[in-house]
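Justification of resources, computational component.

The compute hours requested in this renewal are based largely on the per-chain cost of generating structure records like the one below. Each record pairs the submitted sequence with a full structure-token output. That output is archived, and it is also reused by downstream analysis tasks.
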Amino acid sequence: PASAAQYSDVVERYQADVAFRDLVEHIAEGLGLVVLDVGGTSGIALAAAPGSPFELRLADYRANVSGDDRLLHGLIHVGIAAYGFPTSASLTDDDVRQASVQAVETFIRAGCLRLQEQHGHADPSTDQPETEQAWRLYLRRQATRDTADGRVGVSTTTGMIKFAFERLVMAGLATRASDADGGTYRLLGRYRVAVRELAATAAYRELLDAMAASDQQTST
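The structure output for this chain reads:
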């Protein structure tokens, strides 16, 4: 909105005019969209409802993804969110958050190791939640492996994290800040809004709880 006067006017009208707000939300609902938030800085943040033509499907995210990789990609996105917004306060402030590929990889791996300490090394049974299957798979996957042309292997956890960040950039939820630490990214306000919805999930809370326990153990 700050760079487009007409967009800024629409945002202000949405915030001040109840009838206009209802109209916007009804149109969004008809398109299979949910209005998550509207702010002067980030503008309108929308999410696709199940079955919406705008819903992101796995095939749209990355083609030919195996079952194991599907779980890993899910865990990685939870990990980026938890790293960038680790507290309730961080989900409501306006601070610009940054995260790098290497920092997120270290964060997720440490959380997975902590969960392994809690649950043991045995393979999960078929009725255990996908979260537990995901962190076990993560620990088995290599963090890095250079290809013949010097690039990071796409099937490594570092390569998958980099891919996840680039998808956030494509979605307008992040911007690339530098090449440091495998790639450093700024997490934008509309991403914070999306993470607020994610923060209620069991996977998000479990990873944060594991990291908090790990930090407490280290400090003692």
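The chain has a mean pLDDT of 85. Residues 145 and 153 are 5 Å apart (CA to CA).
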